Amino acid sequence: MPQPSAAEFEVLMAQVHQRLLESGEWDRIRLMLATKLNDSGWTDELHHRSKETARGMATNTLSFTKLFEETLSMTNGTANAGNNVPNPVRREVTALIKTFLDKQFE
Q1: Among residues of the chain, what percentage have pLDDT more than 70?
Q2: Which residues contact 33 (CB under 8 A, 6 or more apart)?
Q3: Contact 26/20 with Cβ under 8 angstroms?
Q4: How far apart are CA 52 and CA 46, in angstroms?
Q5: What Gene3D superfamilies does this protein map onto (predicted)?
Q6: Where are the beta strands (DSSP E) in 1-106?
Q7: CB–CB of 50/67 below 8 Å?
Q8: Cα separation of 13 and 10, whole Å?
């Protein structure tokens, strides 16, 4: 089977996202993810890193956009926020999405 083009892949992703939203599965997965990240301490660590980043910015250069970009990028030598998601949480969310996709495309 040939690989889809980037445009075809984007269309497919939009369709999957729409199905997740319509089925209510998106909200269920999002809530589970938020709970697991909070339980693992990831959320508190992200808040702490964001506060430290904000404190390190000069008052006249402090902006939400800059803080957001700093938080998502390399901060204090650690990988970005998304790459720091604990593996068990990542695996659980991935399994939920895979199960949903398997049901959708049987």
Answers
A1: 88
A2: 89, 93
A3: yes
A4: 10
A5: 1.10.246.140
A6: none
A7: yes
A8: 5
For residue range 40-88, list pLDDT tens digits in order: 998 898 888 888 888 887 776 778 888 888 777 744 445 566 677 889 9
Residue 49: both structure tokens together = 């890193």
Q: Are 74 and 49 in contact (CB under 8 A)?
A: no
- CB burial of residue 93 (10 Å; 0-12, 13-18, 19+): middle
Q: Is the pTM of this model over 0.85?
A: no
The amino acid at 97: I
CATH no., domain 6-104: 1.10.246.140
